[in-house]
């Protein structure tokens, strides 16, 4: 009887903990916009280094893109947004993660293959 009670309590507590955890929402292009906005001046060559706000946003984006699907989504969103910034300098886009010391798993490029 005691063994059954312990198992029941364990299952009850485990279920409560599981129900308290909310599933992570998928990354959307809307989540990418703050990063793009903060990094636009560097991408367009208006400043020589990315701002701390840009790097903070890039770091935030990196933290949000935890799964392979999230990283693919982020990559595809950046590709979709890129045409809105025709003056963006490809070299600046590629240098952004290194300058901000953020190890992205995908390149920031207009022609990136986001399926990899």
Write the layout of secondary structure elements.
Blueprint: H1 2-20, H2 29-43, H3 52-64, H4 68-81, H5 90-100
Organism: Sesamum angolense
Protein name: Non-specific lipid-transfer protein
Function: Plant non-specific lipid-transfer proteins transfer phospholipids as well as galactolipids across membranes. May play a role in wax or cutin deposition in the cell walls of expanding epidermal cells and certain secretory tissues.
Commentary on this structure:
- There is one protein chain.
- This protein has 116 residues and is mainly α.
- It has a domain at 30-110: Hydrophobic Seed Protein, CATH 1.10.110.10.
- The protein has helices at residues 2-20, 29-43, 52-64, 68-81, 90-100.
- Helix 3 (52-64) packs across helix 5 (90-100).
- It is globular and about 35 Å long.
- The relative contact order is 0.15.
- Residues 2-23 have low confidence and may be disordered.
Concise synopsis of the structure shown:
With 116 residues, the chain is mostly helical. Helices cover 62% and strands 0% of the residues.
Characteristics:
116 residues; mainly alpha; Hydrophobic Seed Protein; 5 helices; 62% helix; disordered N terminus
